[in-house]
Amino acid sequence: MIFQIINIVVYGTNKEKRSIELKPNCVNVITGQSKTGKSALTHIVDYCLGRKECNVPAGVIRKNVAWYAIKLQTSTGEIFIARKNPDVGKESSEDIYFVRGSDIVLPEAKALVKNANLETLNTLLSQSLGIVDYSHEPKPGQTRKTGNADIGKALFYCFQEQSEVDDQKFLFHRQGEPFIPQSIKDYLPFFLGAITDDYIQGKEELRKLKRKLKVLEGKILENERLRGNNFEQAYALINEAKDVGLIPLSVALPETWQEIGSMLTETLSKNVENEVGDPSETLLNKLFDKQHVLRSKYRAASEELSSYINFKKTSGGYGNELKEQNARLESIGLFSADIEEHTCPLCSSALQVEIPAVGAIKASLALTKHQLEAVTNETPHLDKLIHAAEEACGQIKIEMAEVKTSIISLQKTNERLSAFRDQNARAAMVKGRLSLYLEHMPEGEVDFSSEIKEADMLKQQILKLEEELDDDALAEKISSALSVISSKITTLAQRLGIEHSDSPMRLDLKKLTVVADTEDGPIPMPKMGSGETWVGLHLVTHLSLHNWFVKKSRPVPQFLFLDQPSQAYFPPDASAETVKNETDTGNPDRQSVIKMFQLVVAETHNFQVVITEHADIQEDWFQNLVREKWWDGQTKLIPMDWLEDE
Question: How far is CA 633 from the centre of its chain?
Fold first, then answer.
């Protein structure tokens, strides 16, 4: 895979063009004074590759440039991209000129006309890079949206602006902007290759299986809902059809699914205009009448049941009193129940004249026994009456519930249909509801065993795929890749003599920084001292990453743009001559800069490094890397003759 820069071009407002040529698969240095436009090159390339905002500084460049452009070498040929300089007061432009071909000749200014927008550019460049359709899905409970891998997310590893190359807090391009750190964390595993094409295909297959299972389970649930335990919904729809005249009021309600299906099919075949009945003769009034009758019957039945229950309670109490009275009369055997009338109840001697009290006691005892026998014999009969009354009340309540369901359904239908002006329209609407119900209604005793079996098979396939795509397995792949890259970072850091490089160093994906694991504990980059250390860690990390990307053929642009990495040694306020002519071989800063550039050259394998520099080392090996020198006060990004009018 090839994706490198051949030319960086600016088109002036005077229709002239200025091109800077670069070489692929090697280090390219552009050296010059301050304020010559070196740092703008990074922003131009970033803008032409789809950055939303144009960060080229305001001033001479923005005033005199009409279009920014780059020419790329890719695996399938060359690509030329020109993007219009934003109008005054604007931060971006959607005017993009895009050409793909071989041996492209840089076009003239007049040929630059819009033929693409920013979205199209992003898509075309992502395709040229070979970025597959990969979407990162946030874990459940996270609020951020699902995103897609594209060239914009790959460019985080391709630029180190002047303010970034020695930053002690942020390691990657644009890491200090909102949401960018999380995007780097989400997509770096993909660009490292831990998320393979097989993993992506497996994720897509898992989504398809889950969608299929959801549809199948919905179908099963809907069929179960439609069948239910009774025909209430079907009856409600039939009563609606009766209300609008689609079904005669005299037709009895069906009792089986087959009968319901036949009735609905026959109803739908009727012509609405010819079958509509009298709107004033509605079923709703009859249902209200029936509801009134049922309520009266229910009140009567409830009262009857209450009277039986109360009578049973009263009879029970009365019976208890009779038993108590009888017991008192027969207590301790004072007299026999069959004593003769002229016999004394106490001594059993014959009496000449009957004592009135004896007869009264005897009569009272006989009456009490008769009444107690009557109460005892009546109790089983009362229990039967109570049971029958309870069943009658229950049956009436069921009928009342069915009538209430139909009334509610008809009332809702009448509300929805009130806007229609004629009965035919109302009937048409009801027919639509009948048709929808019939379409999903099960035909007879439908066997869902095959659907249930298929759903079980899908669940097993989903479970197997989820095990194969397990987060722990992915985490191990990411950890393995980071371990190899971290080992490379440690080796390069030792070659530069970076502080703490005697301890293992690692790239921390969670914190997006480099950490030295010392005997005293981990030391992250922000806690390490000196600009030299921070620049060195930025360089060795990005060189290690790009060598990994190339080795694994990952879809990341094969270039690394470094803006003034020597600034930690040659501060911006150093004079031009001091930087340009630094030849003191004993100067430790000079030796550190030379070591840094030599490391970059040695570790640039099958990718491109572009360095814009304030330093100009006067040695042959360095001068062979230089593509342009902007030291004479005349040569700059914007030619001096473009400024003659100012």
Answer: 57
Using a 10 angstrom Cβ sphere, with 0-12 exposed, 13-18 middle and 19 or more buried, the burial of residue 495 is middle
**CA pair distance 299, 605, nearest whole angstrom:** 96
pLDDT of 343 over the 70 cut = no
- Stretch (H or E) spanning 227: helix 197-227
Closest C-alpha to 29, from 40, 38, 17, 37: 38
Structure-token pair, residue 77 = 């040929």
What's the total number of domains in the chain? 1
Torsion (CA) 525, 530, 533, 534 in degrees, nearest 10: 60
Amino acid at position 509, single letter: L
Determine, yes or no, domain membership for 357.
yes
Secondary element (H or E) of residue 521: strand 521-524
Mention every residue, 6+ apart, whose C-beta is less than 8 A from residue 252. none
Q: Are 500 and 523 in contact (CB under 8 A)?
A: yes
Instruction: Look up residue 260 and give its two tokens.
Output: 């319901």
Amino acid at 31: T
pLDDT digits (tens, 9 = 90+) for 378-404: 566 667 778 888 888 888 888 888 888
| Helix H or strand E encompassing 588 | helix 588-602
Q: Which of 29-43, 359-373, 556-570 has the lowest mean pLDDT?
A: 359-373
Q: How far apart are CA 547 and CA 545, in angstroms?
A: 5
Weakest-pLDDT range from 470-474, 525-529, 614-618: 470-474
Does residue 209 contact residue 465 with C-beta atoms inside 8 Å? Answer: yes
Single-letter amino acid code for the residue at 269: S
Q: Tell me how crowded residue 229 is: count the other CB atoms within 10 A of its CB.
A: 5
> pTM of the entire structure?
0.64
Contacts of 482 (CB under 8 A, 6+ apart): 192, 506, 507, 509
How far is it, in rounded angstroms, from Cα 77 to Cα 395? 85
In a domain, residue 542? The reply is no
User: What residues make up the domain containing 387?
Assistant: 283-408
- Looking from the CA of 539 toward its CB, the CA atoms found within 13 Å total 36
Residue pair 560/160 in contact (Cβ under 8 Å)? The answer is yes
Does the pLDDT at position 412 exceed 90?
A: no
Q: Which amino acid is it at 392?
A: A
The residues near 179 (Cβ < 8 Å, ≥ 6 apart) are 144
Any domain includes 218: no
C-beta separation of 638 from 61 below 8 A: yes
User: Amino acid identity, residue 487?
Assistant: S
**210 vs 197: CA distance, rounded Å:** 20
**What values do phi and psi take at 376, rounded to 5?**
-65, -40
Q: What share of the chain is helix, strand, coil (3-state, %, to 5)?
A: 55, 15, 35
CA neighbor of 115 nearest in space, from 100, 99, 97, 101:
97
What tokens does 535 get? 């620049």
Helical segments of 351-470, H only: 356-417, 423-440, 449-468
Q: Which two tokens stand for residue 240?
A: 């609606």
Does residue 183 lie within any of the structural domains? no
Residues present in the chain in total: 646
Alpha carbon distance, N-terminus to C-terminus of the chain:
45
Among 9, 28, 5, 3, smallest CA distance to 106 is for 9
The string over 363-379, giving b where at least 16 C-beta atoms fall within 10 Å of a residue's C-beta and e elsewhere, is: eebeebbebbeebeeee
